[in-house]
Design a protein that fits this description.
This protein is α+β, with helices and mostly antiparallel strands. It has a domain of about 60 residues. It is built from three helices and five strands, in the order E-H-H-H-E-E-E-E. A five-stranded antiparallel beta sheet has the order 4-3-2-1-5. The model has no long low-confidence stretch (mean pLDDT about 80).
Length: about 90
């Protein structure tokens, strides 16, 4: 009898599906997700409120990063998609 010791599927929790965003979607930055990230430690501590209030428009999505444009005269920014949420 051959035992299959390498596969134990009883205690495996499924990974959450990654968020998929499309070009033109309106989003905002999730404050809790951003504050726990490596990027928050490397950035200015006093971030503008408009990134958390939204909406920012997705210009392009490349892998796990998205380029955002805000509705004000500020530069476009790149953010990780796991730090974004739909704007409502």
């Amino acid at each position: 009898m051959a035992e299959n010791l390498g596969t134990n599927t009883e205690n495996v929790e499924p990974m959450p599906a990654p968020k998929t965003f499309r070009k033109g979607a309106l989003v905002r930055v999730n404050r809790k997700a951003y504050q726990k990230s490596l990027e928050s430690e490397a950035s200015d501590q006093a971030l503008p409120d408009y990134i958390f209030e939204g909406p920012g428009e997705l210009l392009t999505v490349k892998g796990e990063y998205a380029q955002l444009r805000w509705r004000m005269p500020v530069p476009d920014v790149w953010m990780r998609t796991d730090q974004l949420e739909d704007w409502s």
